[in-house]
Amino acid sequence: MNIAELLGPGRRLPAAATVLVAGLLSLICHSLMPLLVLPPTVAVLAYRRARRRRWAHYDAQREAVAALCTALRAELEAGLQPRAAFMSAIWSRPELRDMAEKASVPSPNLDLVRFLTAHAALPGRRALRALAACWHAADRHGVRLTEAVAGIEEGLKAETARARAVAVELAGIRATILLLAALPAFGIALGLALGADPGGVLLHHMAGQLCLIFGIGLDLCGLLWTDQLVAGLRLEPGPFRTGRKKEAWA
Question: What is the pTM of this model?
């Protein structure tokens, strides 16, 4: 996700509202500082929120594919034919509803290998490419699909367990980052409690204005930089990684 996407058609109204609120605050405070610092701050926070939502979507899709493999293996072990087993297992998770609806449309020419390969391009569903390869090998070479699906399932479960372990380890780091980012606000509150006028200095004096702009700029850059470092510790490729092939977000 980039700034162009963040400020796309669906984001123009919130962005305009942010600029309007910042302009009103500037008029009330008789200073340009709110207009200069509020829009970029809101934009960075919205960017971070959208990033977290996309990672959560990625994780949910990966876990849904793992659940699909579990259900498919169970149906195959119960004695169903592969196609019937897949049609039953595809409804195992609501995150795969789009696949289930397309697969359920009556079509004698439905090629499950191509169907799975096409959906593997979506975020979090790359394991479907391995499932498509196993399906192709079962159709062409008689490989036992049950064992192949079980292998994919075990790999996905191990990957999910590693991702959750990393998330637990990073929870303390995220809390520290948020605390450090909020320290300037505590400093301003402390100044007010001591009877000083930090707001007047930051809004109406040149030195205070420069400190405000420089400080907020460093704070926002620090948040984005630490987020990038945390994202680099994730085990699977994703849309915010650098130096590796990225998945296309649909």
Answer: 0.75
